């Protein structure tokens, strides 16, 4: 595909939030499904070098847990609860990385899926943290790298699914 | 009771968070129960002039919904999901007021229950919002009044329970 969509990550100094914006060459119904259906999520979420498993993925009002595994077999768990899941426009969830020294460093994530002309979609992720330190810790842990790689895998997934359709 | 504990609400200009701190003349096991057991919550949460009903109160990983009714029968609903409920020390939940013009203005609430000498407890509520506007809207809607009245009802509830014990 000739189009190269860019992942824009906005991290303003001193704030306890960040924004991730990305366009996709797919209708938002499909983009929303890729964020909420287990068998699709497993195909794109996380850096290429990690394997991804879904431990749990409940509906709105329920909980979710994902685990990434590296080649050495180390597990990196993430979990939270889904506050809202309104297809195909909005997803609001809590998020916690289980590898931190103490529990309770939770963030709130709102994903908005905007329909664009030509069956394209703009994703806006708005993540709010308990503190600036929590946010900066997430960014410094290499979040940006994982997000960009995930979005490139999503491009491939959508291209494949739309070709088959 | 001679003691008069003060509810301190810290709302720094331009931030998307607020802190509420309050001490109670009760051990934290009891304070935690008052925040997590339906039959206790109904006795203190909300302003005196409203009646409070619990529609739903799931465990960690589940959802909750509370409704306040005024004398005219108008209903004010609130709901969210419980990310963590660790007795007797911590409670992390999402929160959304259903009376706003649009859905999706969610906040994240972390309540920490600290044990103090003499079977007393310090409650610290840390609320994080999607924006400064969301936070300021909540404050201007009279949040402070409802919180102070709720805490005074909690004082009475604890005094009554400890006398009966």
Topology diagram in text:
The structure is a homodimer of 165-residue chains.
Chain A: E1 8-10, E2 17-24, H1 28-36, H2 38-41, E3 51-57, E4 63-69, E5 75-86, E6 90-97, E7 107-116, E8 120-129, H3 132-140, H4 143-164
Antiparallel strand pairs in A: 1-2, 2-8, 3-4, 4-5, 5-6, 6-7, 7-8
Specify the number of helices of chain A: 4
Structural class of chain A: alpha+beta
Main sheet properties of chain A: 8 strands, antiparallel
What general outline of chain A do the C-alpha atoms trace? globular
Average pLDDT confidence of chain A is 95
- What is the ordering of alpha helices and beta strands of chain A? EEHHEEEEEEHH
Name the beta content range of chain A: 35-45%
**Residue share in helices of chain A?**
25-40%
Quaternary form: homodimer
Q: Evaluate the radius of gyration of chain A.
A: 15 Å
Main interface: chain pair and counts: A-B, 27 and 27 residues
Q: Low-confidence spans of chain A: pLDDT under 50, at least 5 residues?
A: none
Give the strand line-up of the largest sheet of chain A.
Answer: 1-2-8-7-6-5-4-3
